[in-house]
Amino acid sequence: MRTEIILIGPIGTGKSTLGKLLAESLDLPQCSMDTVRWGYYNEIGYSREAEQEIGKTQGMEGVYRYWKPFEAHAVERLLAEQHDCVIDFGAGHSVYEDEALFARVQHALTPYRNVVLLLPSPDLDESIQILRTRTFNPGPNDFDFHTHFVTHPSNHALAKIVVYTKDKTPEQTRDEILARIAAT
Fold this sequence. Notes:
CATH topology: Rossmann fold
Largest sheet: 5 strands, parallel
CATH architecture: 3-Layer(aba) Sandwich
Structural class: alpha/beta
CATH class: Alpha Beta
Number of domains: 1
Radius of gyration: 16 Å
CATH superfamily: P-loop containing nucleotide triphosphate hydrolases
Shape: globular
Number of strands: 5
Strand order of the largest sheet: 2-3-1-4-5
Number of helices: 8
Strand content: 5-15%
């Protein structure tokens, strides 16, 4: 089993912050999907122009759908290249509506025992409300990323450990993750 720590979860759950804290504590490098994804997307034909056109006609929900094949490819490539590190995914990199894309990501994550889902609370409605206070509230006609990412079954299906962050400092959450990983 691979021992890298992979953090997944919705926007605003602290994946990057905790990735940094965990990497520092373990004296490992941190790899953040949000900083490397565009290079992987470009490998298979991502087009900024196509994204912008989709955004004009279909809004952010259309852009989200456009990104999905690129996100699955990025997960596969990042996991193939990065070893002995702490990895934090972007929020969309662990949520897939398309079964084939989900299966690819699930297969890529199978060897990893430390796939940690971060959520504010076990109560999904409360998690959505907390995330809205941390980041943004969708407008009445906007795609509701918070609800989608929190309630979609992909994150729970991929996670091997779930950690709740409500009422904890980042350091307390880091320590809980380290304790839970040591227990597995």
